[in-house]
Amino acid sequence: MFRLLRLPFTLATLLYQSILLALAQIWANKVRSILTTIGIVIGIASVTAVIAALTGLKANILSEFETFGTNKIFIFPRRPEKGPERAMGWERLRFRPDEFDQFLTYCPSIVKFTRITQLARTVSYGTKSDETVELTGIDPDWHKVENRSVTMGRPFSLVDNTQARPVCLVNPKAQDKLGLDRDCVGQSIMIGQRRFKIIGVVEPRAESAMFGGERAGLEVFIPFSTARQMQPRGGYFVVAASRSPEYSDEARAEALFYLRRKRRIQPTRQDTFGVEAVEKFVQQFKKIATGITMAATGVVGISLLVGGVGIMNIMLVSVSERTREIGLRKAVGARPSAILLQFLVEAVMLCCLGGLIGLAAGQGLTSVIARIPDAKLEKAYIPAWAVILSFGFSASVGLIFGMFPAVKAARLDPIEALRHE
Question: By the 8 A CB rule, do 415 and 327 touch?
Fold first, then answer.
């Protein structure tokens, strides 16, 4: 019983002594130790820098998706790729004006939606004008779906939409380009040959290189029914918002069922519309990013194996140099397990030292990467799991490649070792 209680203390003491001996041996051969760990240093630095760059890119793109709205669902007319519907004309393919009247009733996972139609017209105010401006016809819920509120004035009301009033909303760039007053609510602009009264100013769109925010210019919004009057034969699409990104699959399924029933599409027929959820693309991107990270880590990790071969080589040299020391230790009672542990600990310490230097170098590379202009990698950082993985892999390399030299040292015959020159 007493021996069992002493066993953990004895093992801890032996491990502590082995670590001290390993550090002393590494310090005694500083240059050789540094050269030996170069492979580990390069491998860890490369792996952590690659992971940091990919993590930063992933964080940047996901933040773009969040700005855009991960709970959005796009619904649009689409001609099937096969079946008799692929020859369907635009008149039958496009959505009817009343096709979404009961949409929220039959789709409980969707909380709001807006119909959107676009048309090009000349917009002018006084002596200033802009040709082929893209007008956007929207429903009142557009502000909630797009998360863009009115900073001045008021949004469209149900009355504006049902009565197709000649009112409009503009963005700050439209104010500047048309020379409107700072408080332009109540002023009128000409859209084509028709006068529209400005009732509000919409906050600018969030800048997003991915979704064209940098190209966003003059924006003019009119009620959806007004746009339909101006372009009766035009089509439209729908942007809906689910309760949360987690409900995207349910919302998409409900929208598919609703539209197939509304359009009386038989079970054997193809959809004449498309329903795409932004969350689907987010999940796809996450999978691709994870795959790229793993592939890049695997490729760069080859240098760690090269470093492991260097560790094994130098440990074999160390065993050869210290053969007499090993024989002397065995002659005074050292067990093979103690010799084995000493050389294993020394190999692991060498690899962990290389891993520590590699992490420092990787952090330096990450700082350089984050400062590259226009690379969109300002969010690059080394995640905690990469640090743990680096040290774990370094220790594993030390154990695997240090095992053969350690076993060779533990199996040396003490008499032959003492005779070694």
Answer: yes
pLDDT in tens, 269-319: 888 899 999 888 888 888 888 888 788 777 767 777 777 777 787 777 777
Over residues 327-353, the pLDDT tens digits come to: 777 777 777 777 777 778 878 888 888
- Is 399 exposed, middle or buried (CB count within 10 Å of its CB: 0-12, 13-18, 19+)? middle
Paired tokens of 232: 């009766």
The segments of the chain whose pLDDT lies below 70 read 1-11, 14-18, 85, 206-216, 300, 414-421
Question: Residue 364 is encoded by which pair of tokens?
Answer: 């330096």
Kindly report the number of other CB atoms within 10 A of residue 26's CB atom: 18
- Residue type, position 136, single letter: T
Longest dimension (CA), the chain: 108
The tokens 């859209």 sit on which residue? Answer: 191
Count Cα atoms within 13 angstroms, Cβ side, for 41.
13
Around Cβ 24, how many Cβ atoms within 10 Å? Answer: 10
Instruction: State which H helix or E strand residue 61 sits in.
Output: helix 38-68
Q: Phi and psi (nearest 5°) for 378?
A: -65, -15
> Model confidence over 179-211: pLDDT tens digits?
898 899 999 999 988 999 999 999 988 665 555
Q: Give dist(CA 323, CA 79) in Å, integer.
A: 80
